[in-house]
Amino acid sequence: MPVTDDQVMALRAYLAGDFDTHKRLFRQLDRTSARVGYPALVTAAFCEAVERRFAESGTASDVIEFIGEVRSRHLKDPDEIESRVAERVILSVFTDEEVGDLDAKVKYRTQLILLLPLIDDEQLDDAGLDAFLGEARKLADQWIG
Amino acid sequence: MAVDRPDSGAEAVERQQAVEAPPPPPDRPGDEDFPSRAESRAAAAAPDTDQRQLDLVDDKPDASARDTAGEERDTTLEESTESSTSPEHDEVPAHENSAWDSPDEDDHESAEKGTQQRSSLEKALRAEAVDDERAPVNTSAETEAIDRRASSYGDGADAGEQPAPIDAPPETSDEQRPDDVGPPSDLPGAEPEEVPSQSESGTYADAVVAADTGQVNDTADVESTDRISDVRQAAEPPGDLPGSSLDTADRPGNDELPVPDVSTITVRTEVDDRTQDREPRPRAEPTEGAHFVDEATLDYTQDIDDPAERPDTRVDGSGAAEVNDTGPAMADGSEISAQRSERPDQNAAESTPPRIADVEDSTENQRAGVGDTNHDQVAGGGRVAAEAGDFEEPPELPAGKELLEMEGDDEPRVDRLRRKTYERLDDLFDVTAEVAEEADGIFHRPPTDSHAVVKIDHTVMEAPHQGIHVGEAATALLATGIVIAEISRWSYGKMSGKERT
To answer: For FRET with B215, which of B44, B297, B328, B442 sits at 20 to 30 Å CA-CA?
Structure first.
């Protein structure tokens, strides 16, 4: 089933830093459809954000620098994410990095945490954020459609 | 018709005379002391024997006598019929021909008796033919039958002295004899004029009826007989092993027929067991059982290496076509197994692989043994069998988990990540809920919006009015009074000091 508007609005509140709204909208989602659509939307948004930042001229050093900045500036607890895992997850999008050995939950949690700093660094306005979510939704629909 | 009335008086007389009477002497019209047919007729019609003798001596064989005899045909026919049914009919010609019993003609006595009998019979047959001409049904067949019988008598006596005009049969009748259809030497007891040929019978049902009533001779028509045998074979109960319907004893050259293989017999038995449960059906409605029966027949006939030794080659060819039509079904062992599974009692005694092999082998052998008569049909069926045998099992395709685990080398990385992530979406939803609940504690500060706006209430300063207010005037008056008081006090002190100095 495709990604719904409710799922897009919930993710948009998360990316805007409005955690209370995100929590409220997430609880209102249909569990049946959101069980498939929302994780797909998050993964698609992560891939889209990584490609925007690292796909053209990104290197492994850029990824390592980005992970250091996220841990120092964005996270209250720097150990909230594992550096090597975060680097591999980002590198797996635009390199031949294999992440098959990683746990799916760890991988998804890392993607979800890294998604917010990636969008914060983009300094997107409301239209830019909507355009980004539109691309992510399209990709997610292709995956689960 | 003589064919339809085998026990008629004319045929009875004919048969008895053919067996008992001596060969009749030739008819010699014009010779003295030898009566012609007309004389014989006149003698038979005369009420007085002595007068008949005188008439016979004086009369000549001319056309008027023949006409007179022709007028008396009906009467003669009745007489001959009565004589054939009466027990004394053998004596009738002898008594009637008593006028010819002279001592100097003893050597010709028996011949003359035969001639007399032959003349009377010919009269009867001619009269019968004339009667049948009134009813125009199979007149030619009647004529053929009469001519054939007359010629047979002539052969028994002296064919060289046979007078031609009346007694000689038409030449065309000899050409139309059904005896020419098959070799008479191989057909014991054949009477072709009584056998309905395929063209006469028309349908298989007629042939079957004729076969069941015993009117069909196995050697009358090979083709129709073979078809009848096929129908019978389909209807026969099990236990009749090869050669039961079309008995090998009835086949010409049957000594050269080889004994069928044991495997072939096994297949036939299996097929017959299957057909046991069904009612026999005509060939026009082929069933599986019928096909297999034909197949069994083919299995039997395939062992005949020389097609010339098999008079039923054509029938086998048609059977081969039917078997070849069922080629794919036979090639499919599962289908045959499914059919056998319907009868588990037989499955216990049968082993499937050898039977299938037998059927396929029989098809191959049939293709090689039928000959060129039905080459196309057999070759077509052979191709089907060959194609069925060339089937190879397709490679096992991955399914289920193997398909999910398959990964193409040219798959985009994004798709790979998506696929690997997408595998456990159910678990990921729980992770999302957890992150949503703990988002305030995960991030150090909430990310600032790029253009945050904070509203502030501004205090508006009012412009001073032009003019003197009361307070300001009072203040000015107060200030002015204070300044005046001070100046006054300074001036009083200065003046008082000068006075002291």
So the answer is: B297
